[in-house]
Amino acid sequence: MKPASDTVNSVVLQLAHRELQRVFHDRRLIVGLIGLGLVFGFAGPFGTDTSLSLAPRLLYWLAIVVITGLAGWIFTRFFSNALCRLGVSPLFSALFGGALAGVPITLIVHGINIAFLAMPLADLTPSFATLTGTIVAISATVSTAMFLITLGPTPQTPQSTAPIETANSAPRLLTRLPYEKRGTLLSLSALDHYTEVVTTTGKELVLIRLADAIAEASPVCGLQIHRSHWVALSAIARLERDTSRLILTVSDGRTLPVSRSNISALKEAGILPGQTNG
User: Fold this and answer.
1) Per-residue pLDDT tens digits for 265-278
2) Stated pTM of the model
3) Among the listed residues 271, 254, 121, 119, the one whose alpha carbon sits nearest the alpha carbon of residue 198
4) Strand 229-232 to strand 185-191: parallel, antiparallel, or no bridges (unpaired)?
5) Partners of 191 in beta bridges
6) Residue 51 phi/psi, 5° resolution?
7) In the chain, which stretches have pLDDT less than 50?
8) ω into 120 cis (within 30 of 0)
9) Which domains can be identified in the chain, with CATH numbers?
């Protein structure tokens, strides 16, 4: 059996890897950061309009905004996930995770300053503590704000952006997903303090407990088949026995385990081993 610390590290690294993939596949985020970097580059704030010519200034601000933006997101999620695994509440994990992320972000900013502004470390030392405190405070504030926005009420999706679910029947849980992933709800799976929401148009990791996610899945009819899994009744393709356990196949081809304590609920729903739903 693996030590508990190895399991914690494994889950944290899996979540960090997933966030890394998500960040670099989100074109809107990348384009937004590049656009913001160009705006700062042309504007030349904080004296960079006089210390750097246009071309180096554009490169400087692109490096500052893009690198610290991506690094801040990744480090914040990594530290927040690690703190959650250690038993810290999600809110304080977001707060302290953002604060911890401010430290490597500060080092990145200093490194970019040295590379572009040719400033020796001796010249940076007097402002190091001030800059670190500022970046840590900003990072913690942004991380906490994003956490509260994620858990807070979100506006209803316009009907035109949810072609599969109507505005009246769409579960509230879908409003937590990007528009392009708000398809028909298939399943929910718990992963640490997150729930993986799978729809017909994609999947997304949402910072919400499985029990709360199931409550927000209404009015979609479904069953909790395992302490870590819930599936919509319409998404059940088949249920079959594999040696001594039951395996449920979802309509998208994925398989999920069925715990013994939930077999009776499946039978009451009329879903028996070997049958297909619908």
Assistant:
1) 777 767 765 444 44
2) 0.49
3) 254
4) antiparallel
5) 194
6) -90, -15
7) 1-12, 121-122, 124-126, 151-168, 274-278
8) no
9) 4-151 (no CATH), 165-268 (2.40.50.1020)
